[in-house]
Each structure stands twice: as C-alpha cells, then as structure tokens.
C-alpha cells in the first residue's frame, strides 16, 4: 500500500498545530465547509476554552495528488510539556512528522523536546515556519535557528500561514513526497499496537490501533497479549474524526476497534492485539511504551462522601483515556476516603481535576500539589513516600532524597541576568548556556522539583517579559536536608496538614500555616493553641481565644464578690472542658487551608 502516509504535527504550545490541521481538513474536503470550525480536532470543551490541545486526535483524509489517490492518517498532538507522553505515543504510530515553528517566537523549549522524540524514532522530519504573514514575524531569523538546529539548508524549510492557508497545499505535497509509506506485511498474522483508548457505555472499551501486519474486521476473535484478555470485535473503523465503521483495517492503517470489554484493567496502552485463531508469538509482540513517571502528586476527595463510588468509577474510565494518570486509594481522618493521584505536571493535574468535575459531575477537593520522596531507613529499606503522613519516625531514617530535574530555558539573550537570578532562587545548579542563531539562548539548570512546581514558571515569565519557555525532565533522586512539618491543634497532630519540606524553609512555612488556621478555625468555648513543629521543636504558635458567655449579665448592683464567684466558676469549667474536649475542625477549613 504505497498510497498510505502516516504523519503527526509536533510543535511548542500555541504555534498553530490545530490551525494547520484545520487547513488540511479543508483542502482534502474531509469536513464540509458548513460544519467546519476553528480547532476542529480539539473535541473537548476544555481544549477550546484554553486554546490548547490536550488529547492526541487521529483523523483519516483522502487526497488526490498528481493524479494519484492517497490515504493520509494525521495525528494532531499536544504541545505542552505535561502532555509529552501523548506525543511519544503518537510517534510510534507514524513514519513522519511536521515540525511547526512560530515565525514570531521561533524555536521554543518543547520544539527541542518533541524534535528529540522524533529523532529517536528515526522519523522523517519536515520543518515548517508558520505565521509568516504577521507584522512581527522574524522569518529569516527563525529559518536560521531551524537550519542550525537540524543542520540543513535554509531553503529546504517551508514557509506558511496556516490561518490564511498560504503554502499549506505545498506542505501536504511535501508530506506525500518525503514521508515514506509504511512497511506493509499483508497476508501475515494480525499485529497491531494500541496507542490510545476510551470507554463507551454501549461498545465497551474502544482501542485506537496502528496495524503493522495482517488485518482485523468485525467478528474476529482477538487476544490482547500483555493482559491476556480475549473477546470478539464488535466494530472496526476509522476516524473522520468521529468514529466511522469500515469493513476491515489492513496493514499500515490507523483506526479503532470496539472490543466489547467492560473491565478497564483488561486493556493497556502499548499492548499488542492479535487474532485468537492465529496469534503471533510472544517474541513478536510490540515493545509498547515506557511507563511515564508521575512527578507531581495531589489527592482527590469528594466533598460529599456518597460520591466516593462515583469518583472511583470516573477515575477508572479517565485512566483508560490517559495512561499517564496514576492513582491509588487513600483515606484521611479529616477528609474521608479519596484517591492519591500522580501527574506529569501542574497543568496535567489541573486538566484531570477539571475533567472529573465536568465529565462526571463530581464536586471535589484537591489537596496542594507535592512531589514524591525516597526514604532509606536505618535497616536499609527503601520507601517511596507520596504523602508526609507516611513519613517514618525521624529516628528510623538514615537519609531522605528528593527528585531533581533538568531545566531547559529558551529566551532572548538580553534576559540572561534576570533568568539567572530566578534560577538561583531555586537552589539549583547552573549547567550551561548555548545559543541558537543570534536571538535565542538555551540555559540548562538542575533544580529540585519541589521548587519548580510552586511558582517558578510564573517567576520565569515575569523575569523574561513573557518570552521564556520551559521544558524539564527528571534526572534522579538526590539527598537533601528534609524534615516533616507537623501542625498541632490543641496538642493533637493533624495528619492532613503535615508536609515534607527543606529544614531551612520550615519556620516560614510553619508560620504561614498557623496564621491561616487561626483565621479559619472557629472559636471554641476554651482557648485553642495552634503549633507548627519539627520533631519535638515548636517553630511557631498562635492562640485562638475562647468564646466567652457573659455569666454576670443578669446581676445588677450588690457586692462585686458575687460576680467574681461566677467568673471563677466559669474559668474552672473552661479548664475542665479543655482537658477532656477535642477541637472539631470543620471540613471546609481543610479545604480552604490546603487550597491556600
């Protein structure tokens, strides 16, 4: 099948991937003009609102080029660093990529990251400069940057305006001419890679596949090699971009099959699907994908305890659609039952939380983001700690390690001083500064992830007047002077407020926590003491004064000793209450403090 071309569009966020995909759909007449809208392949409302691509989206286009008909399978990919796993999965299913670069912003951090992924897969790379019609475009400078980066002649780089359609037909022609057709192995046993999936209440689990050999059709009995799940194909089809059934999917094609399976644990992204009647050998199974490592952790708790089972089902279905989303059950004395989630970054956390609220109608509380820590105990056991409440007693800990990441910051050279100051505040280690062309530099820095996820990106944007872009990747766990900060209310530790932080930041963080709690905890009938402590040492303290009933209000005239007796009696009663009573912290206090 020499008429098949499988390709993806990769770029930094907001460089015009979805707009270019829109023009492809128009040129190939895949979507009629009356139904066309901006960001057509961004199917979620959340994607349209934020103006970013969150989920990879495949689509098949048919196009006549120089008198020959071609089948073009396009995968539109996200551009944000938090969704790199979506991009990496797309690249295994294609033979070539369009590397899109904004003519104003030039090469950015995610441009480099996605280019690196494409090179590792040995994909054909077609460099394209977009937005050349903008008054502020720097076409020649960006062309120089790209040529230097790819080590190619500048004249081979294409110039387009995806918004107006200028040069887009030529890009489509370049894809047909330069991207190689897939190696098709017709007549052999079915071997197809699962690169995405979703749940449908009628068709069961729908898996997105790239067929590498053989064919699959309605009624075939299938086997998923990693999970061992078996079933019968309920439907086979293609993306237009909605699901359209076809007679069969053949070698080299991209499409979907409805499995009819209902148990979400039976399908895994990266698994190989084959026919039960003629299975391929285990040695022929596709290598799949490297498991993504969650970098940021936060917990989800339903504000209504009755919604726990709904949250459990919603998370299972969402994990099917997002393989980089990790969860495990968790319970809290204060917040009830919930789930600890692992995410690739803060935007990933925000998107998952928003999807749970919108798509499953859940009212959630999301705790403050944190990172995982590696703890080595004195008896040489190694523990991964995602929550401060699980940190062992300090006397049992030999050392504590935290994740470090490599940062790649791309910005104009004139902002080097301000960027170095922001990096210095991270407590990281400077590595290198390189230059791409005349107007771009790449600053490489190593830093602890806990410092990066708080407000580093905002500070970086402020320091560079919005010009800097950031990409980061995990390096290793390194030792650090880390302690557990406990919050005590009326002498009792409150596990939900515990944190793992560097020792030198413990006082500042403790002071901030006790001040917040003093503001939110309602007054009791006795004085409540709020303390922040590390081990047995109290770092900060605030008191919430007692509510006082006017027990002498009904008295008038007479000796003051009568009032004094009543006040003394009230004082003794408050002391007894303090000894036996416990402070009940309302759920909304946890929500407010953790969000703050």
TrEMBL record:
Q: Mind naming one GO cellular-component term on file for this protein?
A: plasma membrane
Superkingdom, taxonomy of origin = Bacteria
- Specify the Tr-type G domain's residue ranges: 2-183
Q: Which organism is it from?
A: Candidatus Portnoybacteria bacterium CG10_big_fil_rev_8_21_14_0_10_36_7
**BP-aspect Gene Ontology terms:** positive regulation of translation
Q: What is a single molecular function from GO for this protein?
A: GTPase activity
Broad class of where this protein is predominantly found: membrane
Q: What does this protein do?
A: Required for accurate and efficient protein synthesis under certain stress conditions. May act as a fidelity factor of the translation reaction, by catalyzing a one-codon backward translocation of tRNAs on improperly translocated ribosomes. Back-translocation proceeds from a post-translocation (POST) complex to a pre-translocation (PRE) complex, thus giving elongation factor G a second chance to translocate the tRNAs correctly. Binds to ribosomes in a GTP-dependent manner.
Q: Which reaction does it catalyse?
A: GTP + H2O = GDP + phosphate + H(+)
- Record key words, sorted: Cell membrane, Elongation factor, GTP-binding, Hydrolase, Membrane, Nucleotide-binding, Protein biosynthesis
NCBIfam families cross-referenced by the UniProt entry: lepA, small_GTP
Task: Name the enzyme's class.
Answer: hydrolase
Enzyme Commission designation:
3.6.5.n1
Keyword Secreted applies: no
Which InterPro entries did the record assign?
A: EF-4, EFG_III/V, EFG_V-like, EFTu-like_2, G_TR_CS, LepA_C_sf, LepA_CTD, LepA_IV
Pfam families, A to Z: EFG_C, GTP_EFTU, GTP_EFTU_D2, LepA_C
The molecule here is called Elongation factor 4
The membrane topology noted for this protein in its Swiss-Prot or TrEMBL record is: Peripheral membrane protein
**Sorted alphabetically, which PANTHER family does this protein's record hold?**
TRANSLATION FACTOR GUF1 HOMOLOG, CHLOROPLASTIC, TRANSLATION FACTOR GUF1-RELATED
- Locate the residues binding GTP: 14-19, 130-133
Instruction: Give the family per the record.
Output: Belongs to the TRAFAC class translation factor GTPase superfamily. Classic translation factor GTPase family. LepA subfamily. Belongs to the GTP-binding elongation factor family. LepA subfamily.
Q: Where in the cell is it found?
A: Cell membrane
């Amino acid at each position: 099948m020499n008429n098949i071309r499988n390709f993806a569009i990769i770029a930094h966020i907001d460089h015009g991937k979805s707009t270019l995909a829109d023009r492809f759909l128009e040129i190939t007449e895949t979507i009629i003009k009356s139904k066309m809208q901006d960001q057509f392949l961004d199917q979620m409302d959340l994607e349209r609102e934020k103006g970013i691509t969150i989920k990879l989206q495949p689509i098949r286009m048919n196009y006549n080029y120089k008198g020959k008909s071609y089948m073009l399978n396009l995968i539109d990919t996200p551009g944000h660093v938090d969704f790199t796993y979506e991009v990496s999965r797309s690249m295994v299913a294609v033979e070539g990529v369009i590397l899109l670069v904004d003519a104003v912003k030039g090469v950015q951090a995610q441009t480099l990251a996605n280019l690196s992924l494409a090179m590792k897969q040995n994909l054909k790379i077609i460099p394209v400069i977009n937005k050349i019609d903008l008054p502020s475009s720097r076409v020649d400078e960006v062309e120089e940057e790209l040529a230097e980066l790819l080590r190619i002649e500048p004249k081979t780089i294409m110039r387009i305006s995806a918004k107006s359609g200028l040069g887009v037909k030529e890009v489509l022609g370049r894809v047909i001419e330069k991207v190689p057709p897939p190696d098709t192995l017709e007549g052999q046993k079915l071997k197809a890679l699962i690169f995405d999936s979703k749940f449908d209440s009628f068709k069961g689990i729908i898996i997105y596949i790239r067929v590498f050999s053989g064919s699959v059709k309605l009624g075939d009995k299938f086997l998923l090699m990693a999970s061992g799940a078996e079933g019968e194909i309920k439907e086979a089809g293609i993306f237009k971009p909605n699901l359209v059934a076809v007679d069969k999917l053949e070698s080299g094609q991209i499409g979907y099959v409805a499995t009819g399976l209902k148990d979400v644990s039976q399908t895994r992204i990266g698994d190989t699907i084959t026919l039960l009647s003629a299975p391929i050998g285990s040695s022929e199974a596709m290598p799949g994908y490297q498991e993504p490592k969650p970098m940021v952790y936060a917990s989800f708790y339903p504000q209504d305890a009755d919604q726990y089972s709904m949250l459990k089902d919603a998370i299972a279905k969402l994990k099917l659609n997002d393989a980089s989303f990790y969860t495990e059950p968790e319970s809290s004395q204060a917040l009830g039952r919930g789930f600890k989630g692992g995410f690739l970054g803060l935007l990933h956390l925000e998107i998952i939380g928003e999807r749970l609220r919108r798509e499953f109608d859940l009212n959630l509380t999301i705790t403050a983001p944190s990172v995982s820590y590696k703890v080595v105990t004195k008896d040489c056991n190694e523990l991964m700690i995602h929550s401060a409440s699980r940190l062992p007693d300090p006397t049992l800990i030999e050392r504590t390690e935290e994740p470090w990441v490599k940062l790649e910051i791309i910005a104009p050279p004139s902002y080097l001083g301000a960027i170095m100051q922001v990096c210095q505040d991270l407590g990281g280690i400077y590595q290198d500064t390189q230059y791409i062309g005349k107007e771009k530099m790449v600053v490489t820095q190593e830093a602890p992830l806990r410092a990066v996820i708080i407000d580093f990106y905002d500070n970086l944007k402020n320091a560079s007047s919005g010009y800097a872009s950031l990409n980061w990747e995990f390096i290793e766990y390194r030792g650090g002077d880390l302690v557990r900060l406990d919050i005590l209310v009326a002498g009792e530790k409150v596990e939900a407020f515990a944190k793992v932080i560097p020792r030198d930041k413990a006082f500042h963080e403790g002071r901030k926590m006790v001040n917040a709690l003093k503001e939110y905890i309602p007054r009791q009938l006795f004085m409540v003491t709020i303390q922040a402590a590390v081990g047995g040492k109290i770092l900060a303290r605030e008191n919430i004064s007692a509510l006082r009933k006017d027990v002498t209000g009904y008295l008038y005239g007479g000796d003051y000793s009568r009032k004094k007796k009543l006040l003394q009696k009230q004082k003794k009663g408050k002391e007894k209450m303090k000894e036996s009573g416990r402070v009940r912290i309302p759920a909304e206090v946890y929500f407010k403090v953790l969000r703050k």
